[in-house]
Amino acid sequence: MNEKIRKHIEALTTGRKFYSPEEIKASKRKLPLTQVMKHVGDAAFASEKSIASPFHPSERPLFKLYRTRWGIRFTCCNKCGYEGDQIDYLKARFQLSTGEAIALFCRFAGIK
After folding, report:
1. Among 54, 47, 49, CA closest to 95
2. Which of 3, 19, 20, 112 is in the most buried spot, having the most CB atoms within 10 Å?
3. Considering only CA atoms, which of 70, 91, 74 is closest in space to residue 28?
4. For the chain, what is the domain count?
């Protein structure tokens, strides 16, 4: 885990504890999954082509981004079963709880 992410996660324990559904929706519109991936140093994986997974070693292309009417989402292999939106990506990538991932995501989107 890079230093920038570690500092953000440490700040979560002393920061705000609740984000409203409206704040989370606004954050998702403001900061799409590809930008979250770039923000955490995973720009190489922010492609809509099938590629190797950022979650585990793999030689086969298992990870894919795809567009829905709700925005860009990701899916990985059947082995790990990771899939979802920006918050799910942060949960999977850094082994965070849902609350920690929401707080980190909202912090990235500029909501304090």
Report:
1. 54
2. 19
3. 70
4. 1
